[in-house]
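Co-fold these.
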Amino acid sequence: MSAIHLQNLVKTFGDFIALKTMDLEIADGEFMALLGPSGCGKSTTMNMIAGMEEPTSGKILFGERDMAGVPMGRRGVGFVFQNYAIFTHMTVRQNLAYGPRMRGAAKAEIERRVGAIAEMLQLSPLLDRKADRLSVNILQRVAIGRSAIMEPAIFLLDEPLSNVDAAFRAVMRTELKQLQRQFRQTMVYVTHDQLEAMTMADRIAVMDHGVLQQVGTPLEVYNNPANVFVARFIGAPGMNLLKGWPIEGDRGLVIDLGSSGVTPPLPDDLAASVRRARGEVFYGFRPEQVALAERGLSMPVSFVERIGARTIVHLGEGESAVKAVFENDVGLSVGHTAVVAPPASSVRIFDADTGLAMRAG
Amino acid sequence: MADIVFRNVTKRYGTTLAVDDASFTVNDNEFFCFFGPPLSGKSTILRLVLGLEVPDQGEILIGGKPVNSVSPAERNVAMVFQNLALFPHMSARDNVRFPLVERKVAEADIKRRVADVAAKLHIGHILHKPPAQLSGGERQRVAIARALVREPAAYLMDDPISALDARLREETRVELKRIQRELGKTLIYVTHDQEEAMSVADRMAILENGRIRQIGAPAEIYDRPASAYVARMLGSPMMNILPSVRGAGGIEAAEGTIRIVDAKAPAEAIEIGLRPEDIKVRPWAENEMAEAGKGRPARVLEVEPLGGYTVVTIEAGQVRLRAMLRGQPDIRPDAMVAISCDPARVHYFRQSGGALAR
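Predicted complex below.
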């Protein structure tokens, strides 16, 4: 079994708490992304799983086996870093064959495995090329192949795509996902890029300041973020959050957003939770779900970015700034006033004090 | 006037053509972006403007004056430091003063010019602070002020925000664009990020191996790319470009999974280009038959949910194509789907890769 269990895992460096009691279950064969900004503790967590660092306290189990004191080389994990480790004096074939050869695999077996992995990573035409003649993109592919060929039960990747160019990154995302689907390894993938996490992972563990914020499928963390950090971090652009006070309106509970106006009524089940909590709240909605409307929040257009198929319209300023994403040109420009209304079902409410989401019911 | 003109400029390093016969005009007060992959020549163009390199052939004019033999110090263009870095041990004011102090400008002049540039960039109230106490946006303004205090005709930036993470880049590019609009000064900007280029540029030039492949407003280039190369450079996921053949039922691509009926399709077209957001995908009904004007079924390989959008990778015969669908449609790997595209949204390319008009 190659499930990974992190139990009460803590890591401190002197006074600095890199990781604060992390509990996480990664299922056998699961693709788990550890996602967060720099300094959130994701690489520290990964390094402890790999055996490069010892936990200050807490446990790491692979299946039933406690990993305490088990050195890196004995953990049976494959590891790919941001900066690929490739023997530049060797060919692609020699690089791929290196691991199995060191393990004493038979020649025919090595050839078969090199062939298979090269095919999967589209390296077949390059097998006899010297590594020092290859682009960064291809080298990272070789690095992934070198690790994958060992068929580790657990595959750890730390920002493997951050040095490759954008177009190639999109291709590699699909290939990594395919690779994992084929070999069914347990994959732990560290990234600060929410797009990578969203597109590849079965589940995402969102981290900030050494604290696990939420674990869920990509659409769970996008649709129902547990707190304002996750709401802002997931999505490009992140969720809009406007501060306001709940007040009773004619047609139900509404949020008074001050200068931006008053929101449409909240759905009844959500309103019930907000009434119980009574405090100031964040009114949240996704930029992609904003629609222009007759009635709604009236906001001045402050900036317009047309980026290919999408147009990002920036509305309002400072505390009351929000973004709306439209397809193509919407005919809004700076100086216009836009009336926007997020559909009631897409509105999310967060406690302004704790930052925590208020759930319906 | 601070327009910058290149006339047939070529720059070689040994046998490598870094810039190959480049001609363009950057207009006064324009935010002009050079965009291309590594080693495509964009940074060399910046160095040529600055005077750090001299053209092997051709002529460079700044504000109407030929500058080929003018030294960098006398060119009146200013580079904003990489990553908008400031000296951490100096106050914002001393950072801004630095280029003038270094040039031994008279103290009264320094005071006047620092006050001027600070007013323009709205940083008068933070000049006493050290960089560590400034927000990211304030630091950028100070870095730009330091470049502009010399009162250059134009300023230049070389991939200034590439080191920032994705979220911060989104915010910063908007701020840079706002500052440039407020200042109304010519800005030449280099980036390798297509989204950033499209967001900030009034006009942009797309480079390949030292050659300028297309110049225009970002939306213009995105909507009407001059070639398959340019088409692939803008947009994420990139445009699907597929070999196509003319069949009885219209133009076919990806082994008949795509059929386009378009009376205006140019005869010389050997490839079609489909933007991911223009591709429509629907489940293939169980008893459905392929028929004229409709493609054969294709298989879904991968589904990437982005929340607001869903990218679907489809295996259509030997090719893979990507479609970007709005929202969170219920499509799963291995599902059979029908693919279609509005003929008016199809791009056509000739043998050489050049785009064909409909």
